[in-house]
Design goal:
- By secondary structure, the chain is an alpha/beta fold.
- The chain has a single domain, classed as TIM Barrel.
- It is 44% helix and 17% strand.
- An 8-stranded parallel barrel has the order 1-2-3-4-5-6-7-8, surrounded by 6 helices.
- The longest helix has 17 residues.
- The N and C termini lie close together (11 Å).
- Catalyzes a reversible aldol reaction between acetaldehyde and D-glyceraldehyde 3-phosphate to generate 2-deoxy-D-ribose 5-phosphate.
- It is found in: Cytoplasm.
- It is an enzyme of class 4 (lyase).
Length: 217
């Protein structure tokens, strides 16, 4: 298994420096990661640093809490696309979910998904599985799989609990085969990354990417 090709090499801290992005992209080139995931203001920088590579530039929308208005997420998504993002990791509205307003969530994805797809970009929906019940995770699978999102993603990394093997297994069981799974949040070792992949994850979001790759060697 080439673990490097599963990895979205990530930095999303609010104090990110240009030097951090330069290092991130340099490491991504060196290890040939699948993508880098950067804050929206750094999309153009990352895109330029990754020219002439197959490495994708991902960013986040509605991050990290997901309770931005649909119109705000749509504006963020459009700007990210204009700036050159290949993949958009979008946090769902967890307030709506926890208040059992599934109609809002359906309306949200119905507004955002067409814009992403019309521009041939990849959409990953972050459901923050660590703060959801199994029933809520299953309901997310039932809502978003028919919408044909590209990925369901476990976590932002900012909640009290990140990725888990249980959540990946549950998602894989209740998603259609064409919907992939991205595990993120607290993935710091090769052993854990491999467990998540074995459970069904096809992408791993982490900042400890170089450490993980070095542990495989």
């Amino acid at each position: 298994m080439q673990i490097n090709r599963y990895i979205d090499h990530t930095i999303l801290k609010p104090t990110t420096l240009i030097a951090d992005i330069e290092r991130l992209c340099s490491e991504a080139r060196q290890y040939n990661f699948a993508a880098v995931c950067v804050p929206p203001p750094f999309i153009k920088t990352a895109k330029k640093l990754l020219e002439n590579t197959t490495i994708k530039t991902a960013t986040v929308i509605g991050f990290p809490f997901g309770y931005s208005a649909i119109e705000a997420k749509l504006a963020e998504a459009l700007l990210a696309i204009v700036d050159g993002a290949d993949e958009l990791d979008i946090v769902i509205n967890l307030i709506a979910l926890k208040n059992n307003d599934w109609q809002y969530l359906a309306n949200e994805i119905n507004h955002i998904l067409p814009v992403v797809k019309q521009n041939n970009k990849v959409i990953k929906l972050i459901i923050e599985s660590g703060v959801l019940t199994d029933e809520e995770i299953i309901r997310c699978c039932e809502l978003y799989a028919p919408a044909e999102v590209d990925f369901l993603k476990t976590s932002t990394g900012y909640a009290e609990k990140g990725a888990s093997v249980h959540a990946i297994e549950l998602m894989r069981k209740h998603l259609s085969p064409q919907v992939q799974i991205k595990a993120s949040g607290g993935i710091k070792t090769y052993a854990f990354a491999k467990e998540l992949i074995d459970a069904g994850a096809t992408r791993i979001g982490c900042s400890s990417s170089v450490q993980i790759v070095s542990e495989q060697d």
